[in-house]
Specification:
The chain has helices spanning 3-7, 91-103, 155-164, 170-185; strands at residues 14-23, 28-35, 41-48, 52-59, 62-70, 75-79, 82-84, 105-107, 111-117, 126-132, 135-137, 149-153. The protein contains 4 helices and 12 strands. It is elongated and about 60 Å long. GO terms for molecular function: pyrophosphatase activity.
Length: 188
């Protein structure tokens, strides 16, 4: 959405000052001072992220998922294949790349389902979710600091993983429920 259109929002917060706090490999953090609609000021801590992709990939009526340890949560997670966008990379290309790197499967075609913000209260990350069900097996090519296993699970197993907390991240929850809707109705 354009900056001009956002400025027309009745609760628009104009940035008065922005201070860079941290710049890392994946995220950066800034602290903004903003002018509130009532004339007061407030501080906003903002995490900047390049964006990411995720793929709900179905092969033989099973969803491809990866199991990996997530340090911020301190536990293993079952998730759909996903990863961050490289500078200048188009989301569809990133989705195809991440699917192959993490699962070894190549998608002959891919369909965009939805783009969504992960935590709009403090972060600008957008995840672009894709669906693929026309796949061919290739080779897994993990990043050097990436450790995971890939498996194909049924819809019933996915729902059980949600119940048990093995699946609890937003992108995978959305992917599973989209797959469920597609299975039940034939559409998304």
């Amino acid at each position: 959405m354009s900056e001009r259109k956002e400025q027309q929002h009745p609760f628009y917060e104009k940035t008065l000052e922005s201070k860079a706090i941290f710049a890392g490999k994946v995220i950066s953090l800034q602290v903004d001072t903003v002018l509130l609609p009532d004339g007061g000021t407030a501080t906003r801590e903002i995490v900047r992220h390049p964006g990411a992709v995720a793929v709900a990939a179905i092969v033989d009526n099973k969803m491809l998922v990866v199991d990996q340890f997530r340090k911020p949560l301190g536990k293993g997670q079952v998730e759909v294949p996903a990863g961050k966008l490289d500078p200048g990379e188009e989301p569809e290309s990133a989705a195809l790349r991440e699917l192959e790197e993490e699962t070894g499967y190549r998608a002959r075609s891919i369909r965009h389902l939805q783009s969504f913000s992960t935590s709009p209260g403090f972060a600008d990350e957008i995840i672009h979710l894709y669906f693929a069900d026309d796949l061919e097996k290739g080779d897994v090519r993990l990043d050097e600091d990436e450790f995971l296993t890939c498996e194909a699970i049924t819809l019933e197993e996915a729902m059980a993983y949600i119940q048990s907390g093995r699946i609890c991240d937003a992108k995978t929850l959305i992917a599973v429920y989209a797959w469920r809707m597609h299975t039940l109705t034939g559409s998304f």
